[in-house]
Amino acid sequence: MTLFDIAVIGGDSRLVYMADALKKIGYSVICYGTFDTGSDMASAVKAGSLAEALSCSKCVAGGIPFSRNNSICAGVECLDLELPVLYQNAAGMEALFGGLITEEVREYCEQQGICCCDYMKDEALSIFNAVPTAEGAILDAMKNHPAALHGSGCLILGYGRCAKVLAEKLKGLSAEVTVCCRSEQQRAAAQASGLTAEPLERLPKIIQGKTFIFNTVPGMVLEEESLVRTDADVLIIDIASGKGGVDFECARKLKRKTMLVPGLPGRYAPQTSGEGYAAYIDRQLRMMHILAPEGENSNSVGRKEVWN
């Protein structure tokens, strides 16, 4: 039986590039449920089932989110991409990678002694990922509103990693950028970068006149009290994880145009994101001494024979 270092399963087009990048680093890779008609790499080794992919690999790498409703997330339909199948075939697995990994999967890994690594919890990777996220948000804004960003009133809710990058890029496009967040320290940082900054409790008073609103807060922050004061032609783009932070039902009743756009890097910069995930996996495997690329005194053994 041919054995592989990493099984890349499910995910979107980011994992196509991630698999390719891992191969270039020196890892042997088998894929399942990762490819669609438009992105299939002819050189990729593809498993016939999830059980096959897992049984011949030490590590598994999935997408963002890794799973939802007991199924492993994938851009293609595979009936066996389910967590019970993963659990039944995880014997010998040493590491699992994915994004927004659920507590259930995390607890299973802990019980089985499997290293569980979440892309979203790595600071360096999150900062790296903020760039394509910000670029994607700007592209969506330009595609979905007749006004130019130049000179337009732009409001950013929150001032975390993505918001900081987004603010700088909007400022570079000569937009009028206001940041609204709870943290006094973050407001001070925004002001030091030449931005207007306001506390979140002032949102209803400052929201009028803004053409573009970008939410980055993964919790309800844009509610009726503020939405009723928005301009009729406002475009609200929510890039926060999960269900976002906008009362979309209220916005619909007010006929405000809204967009919930998670996973922007996967839509607009899958190569950049995929290569970033591959670099993260490589760092983690080296640090945990589980695997290293072939030819570097690695612990990956017998890619063409059964592990002892």
Automatic annotation (TrEMBL):
Superkingdom to which the source organism belongs: Bacteria
Pfam families (UniProt xref): DpaA_N (PF16924)
Domain Dipicolinate synthase subunit A N-terminal: 6-120
InterPro entries given in the database record: DpaA_N, NAD(P)-bd_dom_sf
Annotated protein name in UniProt: Dipicolinate synthase subunit DpsA
Organism this protein belongs to: Ruminococcus gauvreauii
